[in-house]
């Protein structure tokens, strides 16, 4: 039988694609592998061990940074989602209104403005506020993280709303449901997967942030990523790999869950 | 309009703004408001120990490109700044080119898989995209350091006999940026290629086109909006990159982001730092404007 002529084939493309996937994953796989290294090198393999996870766990700085990262990410997620849900509801209502373009720009500003510019801007403002009020707590970080998490929480909610059947809400109103009851009993149950997806993205984005945190944090407010960044200046031990692997694990779980959550939409 | 209808419209408007208020307040305090302050600071006088003095000055903007000779008061271009600008633009463009050369065939490969497989391949692209940028940069650092995997393999194969210094070079920064931003190139190109009508390709072959001609004359023009989108999506964060040049460039291969940081750290010239930030922002806005116009011709309206 003659081989059929495959019109989709382009010579060399599959090879480049395979190289691309290997290139994407090889560095990460090596990083994870060396977190289990029994020796203290990140290049010479000396056998399997959990010792660097244990040493990271016993390191007070790492523990404090872990707790701080989690509190920060959770607070920012809750605040950003709480802001994004009503904003998406307002933007998804039928009909254009004055200032729509401006608000669209404001919500998406954190996606467009380079992070370093926002970081510097926040440094300037918060430095002045810190001097004026004397308050140097976590509030600044929570506020900064909430702001740049809003567009990430907003997008999946808005997408979900766009694909929703609004006739059900109208039916609820026709049956004398108050706006709040209609929202609680009809809109919210349908919107739920979008809210969850948005919250998960916000959590991952907050957990991973380095630049804005580095500029906004007061002394002794390291999160896991800024702690890692500080460690990279010294001799790196697999302890940093162990911390990175844990962070990586959280992100991967979140992204895969997000992926299947948005698949279930159809 | 009847009174009742008017009242309804007003109520509608009021509830819309009430719903928007929480998001707008947070964004104003921690995003747009501070940006306006940066604009103000760029026109103030630098304080001797950081910070600013409250008197108007355009020295900040002036020093972005020029410097005054200490003795002769003569104006010259600030070579150090210019070389950093040039490096930022050059590395960002090269990053876009490299990610295109790898990303286009990859996106094409995924788009031509059976429908059920495509999602899995795309997931493999998306996972690195959502994982920590610092961790991925760190992974590259471990790979190319003097005692890293690449050097060990090359030594073992006998290709080299002393480790190559790759870390803290321009190559390292370029390699790192291409690595971390590659998914941003693949995603939009895949989105255009997925909708590609392969009957057009078939028509090309029926007219005796070679594979290269089909790629150049049919597939590539149809994927162009995705390629433009991908290039902008890679170029913009590369230009503002801070973590990758800091970790892989080791303080020698400064880019714009690092130059801005210096003005708030050792350099201590806040107005100059503010002016540099706004310069970076202006370049990014121009790039995004080009992107919106290119995307606008493809499909109307925004998401």
TrEMBL record, chain A:
Keyword Kinase: no
Residues passing through the membrane, by range: 12-36, 70-90, 111-132, 138-157, 191-207, 242-261
Protein's UniProt keywords contain Repeat: no
Subcellular compartments: Cell inner membrane; Cell membrane
Subcellular location, principal: membrane
InterPro entries listed in its UniProt record: Bact_Polyamine_Transport, MetI-like, MetI-like_sf
Keyword terms of this UniProt record: Cell inner membrane, Cell membrane, Membrane, Transmembrane, Transmembrane helix, Transport
Domain ABC transmembrane type-1: 66-258
Membrane-protein topology: Multi-pass membrane protein
Pfam families assigned: BPD_transp_1
Purpose: Required for the activity of the bacterial periplasmic transport system of putrescine and spermidine.
Family classification: Belongs to the binding-protein-dependent transport system permease family. CysTW subfamily.
PANTHER family the record matches: PUTRESCINE TRANSPORT SYSTEM PERMEASE PROTEIN POTI, SPERMIDINE_PUTRESCINE TRANSPORT SYSTEM PERMEASE PROTEIN POTC
UniProt protein name: Spermidine/putrescine transport system permease protein PotC
Automatic annotation (TrEMBL), chain B:
Residue ranges of domain ABC transmembrane type-1 in the record: 85-291
Family per record: Belongs to the binding-protein-dependent transport system permease family. CysTW subfamily.
Pfam families named in the record: BPD_transp_1
The species this protein was found in: Roseibium aestuarii
Protein topology in the membrane: Multi-pass membrane protein
Keyword S-adenosyl-L-methionine: no
Keywords for this protein: Cell membrane, Membrane, Transmembrane, Transmembrane helix, Transport
Subcellular location, principal: membrane
Protein name in UniProt: ABC transporter permease
Membrane-spanning ranges: 20-44, 91-111, 123-144, 164-190, 272-292
Gene3D superfamilies given in the database record: MetI-like (1.10.3720.10)
Compartment list: Cell membrane
């Amino acid at each position: 039988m003659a081989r059929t002529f495959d019109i989709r084939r382009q010579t060399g493309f599959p090879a480049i694609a395979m190289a691309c996937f290997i290139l994407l994953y090889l560095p990460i796989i090596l990083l994870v592998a060396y977190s289990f290294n029994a020796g203290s090198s990140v290049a010479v393999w000396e056998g399997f061990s959990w010792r660097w996870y244990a040493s990271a766990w016993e390191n007070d700085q790492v523990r404090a940074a872990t707790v701080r990262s989690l509190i920060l990410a959770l607070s920012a997620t809750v605040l950003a989602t709480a802001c994004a849900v009503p904003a998406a509801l307002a933007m998804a209502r039928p009909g254009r209104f004055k200032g729509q373009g401006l608000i669209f720009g404001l919500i998406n500003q954190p996606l467009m403005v380079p992070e370093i510019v926002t970081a510097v801007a926040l440094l300037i403002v918060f430095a002045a506020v810190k001097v004026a009020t004397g308050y140097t707590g976590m509030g600044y970080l929570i506020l900064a993280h909430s702001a740049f998490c809003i567009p990430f929480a907003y997008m999946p909610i808005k997408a979900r709303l766009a694909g929703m059947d609004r006739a059900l809400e109208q039916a609820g109103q026709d049956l004398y449901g108050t706006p709040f009851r209609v929202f609680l009993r009809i809109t919210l149950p349908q919107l739920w997967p979008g809210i969850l997806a948005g919250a998960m993205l916000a959590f991952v984005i907050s957990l991973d942030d380095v630049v804005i945190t580095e500029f906004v944090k007061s002394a002794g407010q390291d999160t896991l990523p800024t702690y890692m960044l500080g460690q990279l200046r010294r001799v790196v031990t697999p302890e940093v790999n162990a911390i990175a692997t844990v962070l990586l694990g959280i992100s991967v779980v979140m992204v895969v869950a997000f992926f299947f959550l948005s698949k279930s939409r159809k | 309009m009847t009174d009742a209808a008017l009242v309804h419209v007003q109520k509608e408007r009021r509830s819309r703004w009430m719903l928007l208020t929480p998001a707008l307040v947070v964004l104003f305090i921690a995003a747009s408001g501070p940006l306006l302050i940066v604009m103000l600071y760029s026109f103030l006088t630098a304080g001797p120990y950081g910070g600013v003095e409250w008197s108007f000055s355009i020295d900040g903007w002036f020093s972005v490109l020029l410097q005054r000779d200490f003795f002769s008061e003569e104006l010259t271009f600030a070579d150090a700044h210019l070389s950093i600008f040039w490096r930022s633009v050059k590395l960002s463009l090269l990053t876009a080119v490299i990610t295109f050369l790898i990303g286009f065939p990859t996106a094409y490969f995924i788009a031509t898989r059976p429908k059920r497989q495509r999602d899995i391949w795309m997931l493999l692209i998306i996972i690195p995209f959502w994982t920590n940028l610092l961790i991925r940069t760190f992974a590259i650092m471990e790979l190319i350091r003097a005692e890293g995997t690449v050097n060990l393999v090359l030594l073992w194969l006998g290709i080299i006999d002393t480790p190559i210094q790759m870390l803290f070079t321009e190559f390292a920064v370029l390699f790192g940026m291409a690595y971390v931003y590659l998914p941003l190139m693949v995603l939009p190109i895949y989105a255009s290629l997925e909708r590609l009508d392969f009957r057009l390709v078939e028509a090309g072959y029926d007219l005796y086109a070679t594979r290269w001609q089909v790629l150049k004359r049919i597939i590539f023009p149809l994927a162009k909006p995705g390629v433009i989108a991908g290039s902008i999506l890679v170029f913009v964060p590369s230009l503002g990159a801070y973590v990758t040049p800091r970790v892989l460039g080791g303080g020698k291969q400064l880019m714009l982001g690092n130059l801005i940081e210096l003005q708030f750290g050792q350099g201590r010239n806040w107005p100059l730092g503010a002016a540099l930030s706004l310069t970076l922002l202006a370049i990014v806005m121009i790039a995004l404007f080009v992107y919106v116009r290119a995307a606008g011709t493809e499909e109307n309206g925004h998401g």
